[in-house]
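for the recovery benchmark. tokens below, seq after
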């Protein structure tokens, strides 16, 4: 499966080991760690219980940008409600969507720090929220438990569906390409006076949600950036 598990700011090394074990149980092998507190660590190795190969091949990066640069579709795991609605999928539907998009390029499931979870800024980089239904009286899942639920659904879905990209399909824009586009868009909106830097409110977040739903491909992003360049008031002075 062309699927990456990303752990952001993990504070307990034992959780990293437990995640590696959960991944190997279900046949996933690509783990990326963004700014972990402690890694490598003996507790991670102990909790991996035989999944040492996943720990050894895990890539450690300093920023989320690095982890998502080549991804075309990202699901961010979150249990908290948000002031702005994000597209949201339960595990089984999310697994099916990830497998579908994985035929076009690298996809990822992003899990946040144990205590705080993903922030709105982190979710700005995601195409959808992954929400795992739990007992409303006790809805706290351990990080490795959440990863196990999602990797199980991916394995079950992968065993029942044959996913292939159309031969003429244009790849979706990667996380890096989308990030450049959003920065370009924000700069043009600011230069035009439409976006007020001192009072931005939720404009860019809402625009990110809009384009995340649209899922632009590489050609469409190039067209949009060409339009922004042509309309940029700063270029006409």
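predicted aa per position
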């Amino acid at each position: 499966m062309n699927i990456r598990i990303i752990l952001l700011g993990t504070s307990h090394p034992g959780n990293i080991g437990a995640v590696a074990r959960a991944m190997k149980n279900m046949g996933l092998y690509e783990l990326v760690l963004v700014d972990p507190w402690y890694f490598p660590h003996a507790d991670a190795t102990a909790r991996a219980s035989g999944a040492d190969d996943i720990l050894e091949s895990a890539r450690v990066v300093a920023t989320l940008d690095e982890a998502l640069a080549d991804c075309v579709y990202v699901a961010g795991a979150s249990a908290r409600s948000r002031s702005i609605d994000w597209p949201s999928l339960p595990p089984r539907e999310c697994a099916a969507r990830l497998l579908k998009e994985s035929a076009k390029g690298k996809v990822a499931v992003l899990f946040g720090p144990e205590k705080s979870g993903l922030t709105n800024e982190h979710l700005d980089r995601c195409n959808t929220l992954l929400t795992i239904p739990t007992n409303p009286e006790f809805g706290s899942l351990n990080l490795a438990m959440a990863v196990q639920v999602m990797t199980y659904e991916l394995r079950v879905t992968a065993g029942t569906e044959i996913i292939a990209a159309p031969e003429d399909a244009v790849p979706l824009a990667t996380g890096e390409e989308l990030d450049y586009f959003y920065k370009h868009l924000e700069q043009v909106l600011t230069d035009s006076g439409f976006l007020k830097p001192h009072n931005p409110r939720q404009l860019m977040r809402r625009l990110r949600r809009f384009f995340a739903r649209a899922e632009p491909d590489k050609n469409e992003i190039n067209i949009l950036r060409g339009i922004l360049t042509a309309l940029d008031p700063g270029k006409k002075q």
